[in-house]
Amino acid sequence: MTRWLFGDQLGPHFVDDHDGPILMVESRRVFVRRRYHRAKAQLVLSAMRHRAAELGDRVSYVRAPTYAEAVRAAVADVAGPLEVVQPTSYAAVRLVHRLEADVEIDLLPARGFATSREDFTSWAEGRGDKRLLMEDFYRDARRRHGVLLDDDGGPAGGRWNFDADNREPPPKGQDTLGVDDPPWPVEDAIDAEVRADLDRWERDGEVAFVGRDGPRLFAATRAEALAVLDHFIARRLADFGAHEDAILEGDPWMAHSLLSAPLNLGLLDPLEVVARAEAAFRNGEAPLASVEGFVRQVLGWRDYIWHLYWHLGEDYRDRNELGATGDLPAWFADLDGSATRARCLSHTLDGVAERGWVHHIPRLMVLGGYALQRGWAPDQLTDWFHRSFVDGYDWVMVPNVVGMSQHADGGVLATKPYTSGGAYVNKMSDHCSDCALNPRIRVGEDACPFTAGYWWFLDRHRERFSSNHRMARQVKGLDRLTDLDELVAQEDERGSSPP
Ligand SMILES: Cc1cc2nc3c(=O)[nH]c(=O)nc-3n(C[C@H](O)[C@H](O)[C@H](O)COP(=O)(O)OP(=O)(O)OC[C@H]3O[C@@H](n4cnc5c(N)ncnc54)[C@H](O)[C@@H]3O)c2cc1C
Ligand code: SF4
Description:
The structure is a single chain. This protein is mainly α. Strand 4, helix 4 and strand 5 (105-108) form a beta-alpha-beta unit. The N and C termini lie far apart (57 Å). The protein has 21 helices and 5 strands. It has a 5-stranded parallel beta sheet with strand order 3-2-1-4-5, with helices on both faces. The protein is globular, with a radius of gyration of 23 Å. Helix 10 runs antiparallel to helix 11 (288-311) and helix 18 packs across helix 21 (484-494). The structure holds flavin-adenine dinucleotide and iron/sulfur cluster. Residues 342-344, 422, 425-426, 431-432, 435, 437-439, 448-450 line the site of iron/sulfur cluster (SF4).
């Protein structure tokens, strides 16, 4: 059997039960069709080529314009049937099924996630009509995998959830959290070769990218990923929790792990990451609130999102319950931070342009929150996030954008839309103090587009949200605004132009 590895199946756990030949396929067409961040293209190709170099003679590394062409050509070369670990998107699963017309392909169960599809399905079915809450899924996963439990089976420290300790605003008077930077990768000849290829493709007019491609910041090999993990556990995890929901302009990384890209490339297994975090707590190297907060992300959120992607079906991506049909404006799509006076937006777009990454809260509160207020089409936003972020893959973007960020599923993932006015951005970040606009003003030249946009959004969806018990109070607040007509006229006029 030849095992066919996709570009996000690069760790040892995708081949440790196989000692035969391996097929890897690199297709340029992926980048021709859509405008990706250049740093993402660099990272993914570098990771694949590094893995092929490690696997040596065992691997047939095929480069071809299209994926299907490459596999068909390769299949003619490799004798016998193929096997492949379940790929991570509907499109890739369809490709495997299409190719089954030409060659026998054995589809193995998914790897790289903590909970199996079967376990998720039986958990979901066991709930009857109850909502598929992440908190319940996560507690079940803690019990299933024996993570952070006391001897009596209860949660370590007597609590399942330390969110209340982990929602601190940014520390006052500090530009950074003061945590050590992660170890940055040292580029090699493979990185240089990838860059030369990207340059050539761009020069030939075959592909176009967004964003800048500076020195590579994210792990592309297992060794680099382990170095980031080791350093995170030893030097950053203890500080992960308290300020995980806060933004500091001068500190893009804060105490976040930077592990999403290597996890999603398959270089690390989530359970090994969780085990390392738990060991740090048991050894007294990191406090429980931080460790629980981190484990919740990896064992809880990451797996929950993965399972919902499959559980909710392929047409979930098309959900648009709020009827948002606006086009993504060019300034936003092209990551042009200089287009806007709104410091939070400008800084966040610049961060994405520079790194192809910003942490969870700028994604949710700034980028997603603004798109929601403006009524931009969720499918366009999903595509944009997918292309612009180094860790973006279909399985992870669709539920995060459609459900968590745009409330386009009408409340399957989150009971209320996640969006806020400038006051909350002001509380959780240090953007507003240096912004030309004022978070307390909603109408006029100095009006904050988030504050005005928040009320504009609520007014547009007044009817729907007045019957949502978590939103009814906010909707009632509209009645107290004496300048609502003026505000609505102002925001109707602004629409999607840069604020
Ligand atoms: C609109 C939006 C889009 C997002 N798109 C992606 C994406 O394409 N790829 C991606 O991996 N994450 C995505 N996330 C989740 C999260 O923002 C990133 O995983 C995180 O910022 C990556 O940085 P980190 O590795 O330093 O994470 P940390 O803050 O250190 O968190 C640890 C790990 O938890 C996992 N995690 C936490 N939250 C989520 C989540 N909601 N979904 C999946 N995994 C999660 C990641 O693997 C992450 O590495 C998105 C969130 C939002 C709101
Ligand atoms: S005042 Fe408004 S636009 Fe300016 S940084 Fe704060 S939230 Fe953003």
